[in-house]
Amino acid sequence: MATQRQYEELARRLSAIGAIKRGLGRMLPHDCPGGSAAVLLILDRDGEMRMSRLAELLAVDMSVTSRHVAHVADRGWIDRSPDPADKRSRILRLTPAGRNKLAELKENAVEALAHYLADWSDEEVDQLNALLARLRESFGDCRAAPRLTHITDFTEPTTRTPA
């Protein structure tokens, strides 16, 4: 098992991933912010689905999902059709325009990563991919936060003094 120091270092390194994500997000076209891109990616990966399922996969509440869905639907990137099993629900699916937008987004992401990781070997990129996939699997459903017995500031453990 890793040591406290190793977990502290990992916490610091993971916080830097936010800066990387924001940098990649700034490269997205102005008409397709990150939430919209995530909707397109999920529908491409998992196929058509109800909005409730999309909200689960995005790990956000329905109001946020609704805004993302409205944004991509207004641009013609997805279709919202009545669910034959439940007329109150809608089935979301990518349109050809959505597939084209997603292809553009993927191409831009690959170019950016190729630029920033140009000095990495194929093996290092494979290793990073494998470790990130394993990290994601370890977290499972990120919406359910574990209950912690104490909070740390990632540098020193918090100690409780008796009252």
From TrEMBL:
Pfam families per UniProt: MarR
HTH marR-type domain mapped to chain residues: 7-137
Gene Ontology molecular-function annotations: DNA-binding transcription factor activity
InterPro entries: HTH_MarR-typ (IPR000835), MarR/SlyA-like (IPR039422), WH-like_DNA-bd_sf (IPR036388), WH_DNA-bd_sf (IPR036390)
Protein name stated in the entry: Winged helix-turn-helix transcriptional regulator
GO term, biological process aspect, one: response to stress
